[in-house]
């Protein structure tokens, strides 16, 4: 056999071997094919969610935060009125379990986003890493998946019960599912802090970590604006008071139309 033919056969054999390995180990595609620097966990990257008919979610990047309006301006665009009754609320009215994002569970994707480059993966699962927990300000380091599961919860920044009473109950179930699974509305946080928050809005609960409060209410405002949810008068007052200390705080994932 000619040298050129031998090289071609060797290359084709290697490619075939990789293809078979990926088919057998689909969760490992990311380790092989995705450069770390292009990961959606990069600092400052705001994720949005597009959901297809097959209930599979896809994470995509938003526009630059530089184009975002002020959170205080977005707050003024929200409708203000009282809570609707909680009658009929159930978590299943929004979703039943985390969807799949590019082959991996959304919870694991959110953990990976928060841990950034420190995230250690076992297939899709985040099994170790570290980050500064936003609600308490604690620096947390994990060496096992069990530690992560015990300490952290994925919080809906705008609680689902709050969303239900401020417009979501009148929306299509598909839209409610987007509210529940949109990474804009999801943060990995300290379990006890999240349980203390429960379904409270900004008028009844703010993160103990005061350094994060501006970002927290800006994200709440952005979620409510995106999904046309309203705020109560007390909630608006509480958010306004927080934003007074950070008048330049930008909305998250909101880009003005230049037309």
Would you write up a description of this structure?
The protein is an alpha+beta fold. Strand 1 and strand 2 form a beta hairpin. The protein is globular, with a radius of gyration of 21 Å. Helix content is about 40%, strand content about 15%. Strands 1-2-3-4 form a 4-stranded mixed beta sheet. It has 10 helices and 9 strands. About 25% of the residues have low confidence. The protein has 2 domains: about 35 residues; about 200 residues, no CATH class. Helix 3 runs parallel beside helix 9.
- The overall pLDDT, averaged over residues, is 81
Number of helices: 10
Total domains: 2
- Main sheet overview: 4 strands, mixed
- The count of strands amounts to 9
Taken from the alpha-carbon principal axes, the silhouette is globular
Report how far the terminal alpha carbons are from each other: 65 Å
The neighbouring-strand order within the major sheet is: 1-2-3-4
Features:
259 residues; alpha+beta; 2 domains; four-stranded mixed beta sheet; three-stranded antiparallel beta sheet; 10 helices; 9 strands
Concise summary:
This protein has about 260 residues and is of the alpha+beta class. The chain has helices at about 5-25, 30-35, 70-75, 105-115, 145-150, 160-165, 175-180, 190-195, 215-225, 235-245; strands at about 45-50, 55-60, 100, 105, 120, 125-130, 140, 150-155, 185-190. The chain is globular.
